[in-house]
Automatic annotation (TrEMBL):
NADPH-dependent FMN reductase-like domain span: 38-117
Molecular-function GO terms, alphabetical: oxidoreductase activity
A Pfam family that the UniProt record links to this protein: FMN_red
Matches recorded under InterPro entries: Flavoprotein-like_sf, FMN_Rdtase-like_dom
Name of the protein in its database record: Flavodoxin
Gene3D superfamilies cross-referenced by the UniProt entry: 3.40.50.360
Length: 150
């Protein structure tokens, strides 16, 4: 069975709603043969990354950058996972009110360094998530999980 690791920093109700929709999409009944594992960014380990077949990352944009928690995650797993995870698919979402470009740049730079392959367009949610944004979150979760179906 393939494993999707969702690494997230979810400090607000808006981020929680996004995470719940992403997970709902990834675990829809149409997705088979994929185990979904969720880890807060501060608790995710190199072992979690090495045991997964694909990744879905979630972060708020804090002062125009990824959250400190997601940065800590990457700092912790980067070198232990560098060669072993190259080529694995990933997707991500960023939530903010404005100035999210730096967060996108950071994720793109780090995942490029890891050699991960983007499997879906990045999702940006600005402001409070509305129905359209939540549907896009569901689609992101389903798309990344479907990429891992065997």
């Amino acid at each position: 069975m393939a494993r999707l690791l969702i690494v997230h920093h979810t400090p607000s109700p808006g981020m929680q709603a996004i995470l719940e929709k992403v997970v709902e999409g990834a675990t829809t009944e149409e997705i088979t043969g994929v185990e979904v594992v969720r880890r807060p960014a501060l608790g995710a380990t190199a072992s979690d990354v090495l045991e997964a077949d694909g990744y879905l990352l979630g972060t708020p944009a804090n002062l125009g950058y990824i959250s400190g928690a997601l940065k800590h995650f990457f700092d912790t797993v980067y070198y232990p996972c560098l060669d072993a995870t190259a080529g694995r698919p990933f997707g991500y979402y960023v939530h903010g009110n404005e100035g999210v470009e730096g967060a996108h740049r950071a994720i793109k730079s780090i995942t490029t360094g890891l050699g991960w392959k983007q499997a879906a367009e990045p999702l940006t949610v600005l402001g409070q998530p509305d129905q359209q944004a939540l549907e896009a979150c569901w689609e992101l979760g389903a798309t990344i999980a479907a990429n891992l179906m065997q």
